[in-house]
Amino acid sequence: MLRRSAISFFLVLVGICGWARTRPHYGGTLRVEVDGDGITSPDATLFHLVLDGLTRDGINGQLAPALATDWKSTDGDRRWEFTLREGVTFHNGYPLTADRVIASLTQDCGGACEWSSLKAQGSTLIFTSDAPMPELPWLLVEDRFLVRLMDTGEGKEPPCCIGTGPYQLAGERSGTFTLTANENYWGGQPYIDRLELVTKRSVRDQWLDLSVGRADVVEVPPEELRLAQQQRMTVLSSPPVDLLALEISTDGALANQPLRAAISLAIDRGALFNVIFQKQGEITASILPQEVSGYAFLFPAERDLGKAQQLLGGVKPPKLSLGYEGGGSMQLAAQRIALNLHEAGIDVQVTSALHADLLLRSIPLASADPAAALESVLGAAGEATPLAATLPTAVYRAEHDFLDRKTLVPLLDLPRAYAVGARVRDLTLGSNGTPDLANAWLEVTQ
Description:
CATH superfamily of the largest domain: Dipeptide-binding Protein, Domain 3
Number of helices: 13
Largest sheet: 6 strands, mixed
Helix content: 25-40%
Strand order of the largest sheet: 14-18-13-17-15-16
Structural class: alpha+beta
CATH class of the largest domain: Alpha Beta
Strand content: 15-25%
């Protein structure tokens, strides 16, 4: 009996010790490395740590409160009222007020705001417009509407970036940003005390640093996902959150819609998917992924070289320039597209210049909501007209009509992925593919 009790006590003790080892710990420094600058690149890593929006993507892609606790619309979605969360302060101690939010939002969208008027009424923000804004709460999730302090009271815009987020910027040196936990964060103090964000670090160097313990979170480009898994890295991968698309100018010879249509038909998406991006993501001819819209299969993605040549009618167009954003795989993809177009009788010169006749770019899908995501992509492509309705049929029609112009050719839906070190715990990716570092913690090693 005594022996049985001793064994039971030992098992309980082991369980307690195991639980203690896996409990979240406060403290430690986590090092993140990225290839971009962390601010203007699509992942905007720094902004997501330092700044909050009025709303945010919550669990399972549901809209959730952030700096606004609730909202309601009247007048057919032409008027929206957002109530600010009480007791929130910026990192420098200034209180969050409606006027300060207005200053930030107005600066962010300039003269192209989705609303025609934005006013404060106490702690309430009132958005109004002549046209319906049914997707406004979802649009405010986007990075461009993250709230920052625009004036410290001296009439000058403060340096980047004073926000209300879980981390505050403590300094920057040679491309390495140091961030410290915001102990007064309205969402609760983060577990990790300090973050070091190293920018403009090549993926190869990132992986080397991870292997020797100099980095804890590094990027894994879609085309390198399979290699990372083969190397036994611990990889977190998102659903498709970036749209690879070819933007086509409407100037000069490209004012001819049949020529633009021929270009779209001549591209071999399968080669891009299989060869360049190593079968990661999904082939698409629609702006929204199938899991978001439910209708992506209605847009044919097959190459039709014969029809492309038929549209050209035997007329050889002038040589076009093809630029690309980024490097590496984007350059290879641009070269592959140039080869496809040459086979159709269209000569293209690949260039690193962004001001080109054709531009290969990656566009973030900023929302899990179909109408808001479509409106965001259309805005990025220069189409500023908001959607008048959010029903699936209306969203489909808006997308179909836009794509029919052949000014944007969707090619692939791509995921985002990160590799993490052995001491990182409970790290997840948000619905936009960004690491949720505010809720991660570090295992204490003896």
